[in-house]
């Protein structure tokens, strides 16, 4: 009886062929296809690491400012 399970056929360099760039560096676009402001991208990138208090305060500031679109 032979070996069972998956076998590693060869070792690779680990390169995936996919460029590693963040959205801010590569000119991230929003859902509508427009460029995201670099300052907004800083907030987006930081969001997962922000405390709930800071997130709530940022949201309160934005909501208090209202819809400024023309």
Walk me through what this model shows.
- The chain is mostly helical.
- The protein has a domain at 37-70.
- It is built from 3 helices and no strands.
- It has helices at residues 23-26, 38-46, 52-65.
Low-pLDDT runs of 5+ residues are none
> Could you say which structural class the secondary elements and strand pairing correspond to?
mainly alpha
Largest sheet: none
H-E string: HHH
What is the strand content? under 5%
Radius of gyration computed on alpha carbons: 22 Å
Query: Portion of residues in helices?
Result: 25-40%
Count of runs of 4 or more consecutive helical residues: 3
Tell me the distance between the termini. Answer: 74 Å
Mean pLDDT: 74
Total count of strands: 0
> Could you say which overall geometry the principal axes of the C-alpha atoms support?
flat
Descriptive labels:
single chain, 70 residues
Write the layout of secondary structure elements.
Elements: H1 23-26, H2 38-46, H3 52-65
Outline of the structure:
The chain is mainly alpha-helical and 70 residues long.
């Amino acid at each position: 009886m032979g070996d069972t399970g998956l076998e590693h056929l060869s070792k690779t360099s680990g390169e995936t062929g996919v460029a590693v760039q963040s959205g801010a560096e590569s000119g991230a676009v929003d859902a509508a296809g427009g460029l995201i402001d670099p300052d907004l991208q800083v907030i987006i990138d930081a969001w997962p690491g922000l405390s709930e208090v800071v997130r709530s305060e940022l949201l309160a500031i934005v909501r208090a400012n209202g819809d400024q679109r023309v």
